[in-house]
Amino acid sequence: MRRQRNSFKTLLILLIFPLLLLAGCGNRSASTESTNTSEKTNDDSKDLVKVKQVTNWFAEPEHGGNYAALMKNFYKDAGIDMTIEPGGPQISSTQMVASGEADFGIVQADDILLARDQGIPVVAIGAIFQVNPQAILYHADQNIKDFSDLNGRTVYTAPGVGYWEYIKKAYKLDKVKEMTYNGQLTQFIRDKKAATQCYITAEPFSLKQQGVETKYLLIHDSGYQPYANVIFTTEKMIKENPDLVKRFMEATIRGWEYYKDYSDEINPFLQKYNPDLTIEAMKFGAEQQKDFIYGHDAAEKGIGYMSKERWLTLQKQLIDLGLIKKKEDINKAYTIEFLPNK
């Protein structure tokens, strides 16, 4: 089952950031590990720059373009010997990138602002999802029309995360029984009146396979709209290796352009890194996420685009919720200069 891909894990690692800096004093400009490399190798690999990126979960369609760039050698074309390390419940991409253990990572947009508020110098360089596929899932036979209808119900979610704090405040949810989401759906299945966090690219499909019909309220529709699967690096990487950052992003976006039309080709490659995910589930996820990645602003301005207005709105929401304290120059938190044609 899915984990909470948001700020809960970031809040935990913020407390140990000084230790991360010490651990990262021996920072390397490229990864020395080779856990996940392209299927193809060549004699020129010694001339490539070794780079590691860490995702925010096990390999799945939400990372399809990154793996497409690996499989199709787009990273090698850009002079990069790429390692992709899948995330997981015990892995923080913020921690790994901040400490120098990885060069690039994937988080949610609010994770970037939470980290920077604590002095962690990470910078967003592209947003794969224009619309976050996270949602509140409920049984299809329940009379739920909007978030205010969650009052009086049990809701499984991660405590203290931005979207849930926002929804509780905006929709006056003072009668909700909050339960900590643990990645399992057993209790949700049993309790017809319960609701749970989910990703619409995954849980609706897996539950339907079990005979459970569901509907959902998209978090984006609540008014809380952080970009999802945001690719990030450090201020140091941008300052010292801007050309590498540019080549990395161009190859990654090229991978996402390829995955749009050829996901059926890439999904078996994804499955090698996540055998528990079926091809049918990946096909469902790839179709569900298309508009969220390739539509909206990305349709006109390209995959990965981020607007200043969205970042400013998110910053204000986090300040209003008391989750961040400082209102720093938002231009320091993100940049689109490394996206293709920028």
TrEMBL record:
Q: Which domain of life is it from?
A: Bacteria
A Gene Ontology biological process in which this protein takes part is: thiamine biosynthetic process
Signal sequence extent: 1-30
What keyword terms does UniProt attach to this protein?
Answer: Signal
Gene3D superfamilies under this entry? Periplasmic binding protein-like II (3.40.190.10)
Ranges where the SsuA/THI5-like domain occurs: 61-263
Enumerate the PANTHER family for this protein: 4-AMINO-5-HYDROXYMETHYL-2-METHYLPYRIMIDINE PHOSPHATE SYNTHASE THI11-RELATED, THIAMINE BIOSYNTHESIS PROTEIN HI_0357-RELATED
Protein name, per record: NMT1/THI5 like domain protein
Q: Which organism is it from?
A: Bacillus methanolicus PB1
